[in-house]
Write a structure and sequence with these properties.
NADH-quinone oxidoreductase subunit NuoE, iron-sulfur, 5 strands, 246 residues, 2Fe-2S, alpha+beta, iron, globular, 5-stranded mixed sheet
Length: 246
């Protein structure tokens, strides 16, 4: 039976950016390309640049990158589809990523993710009806000593619980100020993409804001330097939490 078989139609060329948008992006692209000895090396920040325009990497954005860098659209598409940091469909102002890798998962990451799916009425990689939140599970935020960790537009929210994560997304949707545990203040996903393209973050205090590793991470560093940790991070079996080692 062939009634459900469709040969399809060739995809039309991607529409061009409006003239004023193209002119602005072209100027930004020149600044990016000038940083590299080989223009094709500029592809990753260029993809962030076009993502900052529409909130995701469109066919128009990929065509612009290909034309500007002298690449084929297939080469650009291969890179854009390889990295999960490039969104392939419209997404929210705030990308909320819940770590569900082993440690975060057992410390509560799985519970947080399930609670947020129900609370926001979305599934993985889906966006709320108001366009504010895109929820996704991600693999390892490289912050295991703060597990479970949630990231919003790549800023850290450490030691989360289902209740704190739900309060955080509610505040974001309501337009209330939300402060990361460490790092720069939050901005929208489009603004984040422009910063990742290599353009300065000109918000007052944003560059100065920072955050370091937690005590559990630094124990290994101190041991490697021959230093003795000041106290145990994990207490041996049988000891109470108030007892410290030598």
């Amino acid at each position: 039976m062939t009634e459900n078989v469709s040969l399809g139609m060739p995809q039309l060329p991607a529409p061009a950016y409006p003239a004023e948008v193209r002119a602005r992006l072209t100027e930004d692209a020149r600044e990016i390309i000038a940083r590299y000895p080989d223009s094709r090396s500029a592809l990753l920040p260029m993809l962030h640049l076009v993502q900052s325009e529409e909130g995701h990497v469109t066919r128009t954005g990929m065509a612009f990158c290909a034309e500007t860098l002298g690449l084929t659209t297939a080469e650009v598409t291969a890179v854009a589809t390889f990295y999960t940091m490039y969104r392939r469909k419209p997404s929210g102002d705030y990308q909320v990523g819940v770590c569900t890798n082993t440690l975060c998962a057992v410390m509560g990451g799985d519970a947080i993710f399930e609670e947020l799916k129900q609370h926001l009425a979305v599934g993985n990689d889906e966006t709320t009806d108001d366009g504010k939140i895109t929820l996704e599970h991600i693999e390892c935020n490289a912050a295991c000593d703060f597990a479970p960790v949630v990231m919003v537009n790549w800023e850290f929210f450490d030691n989360q619980t289902p209740a704190s994560a739900k309060q955080m997304v509610d505040d974001l949707r309501a337009g209330r100020t939300v402060e990361p545990t460490r790092g720069a203040p939050l901005c929208t996903f489009k603004e984040t993409a422009r910063i990742l393209a290599g353009f300065p973050d000109e918000r007052p205090g944003a560059v100065e804001a920072t955050g370091g590793a937690g005590p559990a991470s630094l124990v290994g560093l101190r041991l490697a330097k021959g230093e003795q940790p000041h106290h145990r991070i994990v207490h041996p079996r049988g000891e109470t939490s108030g007892q410290e080692g030598e």
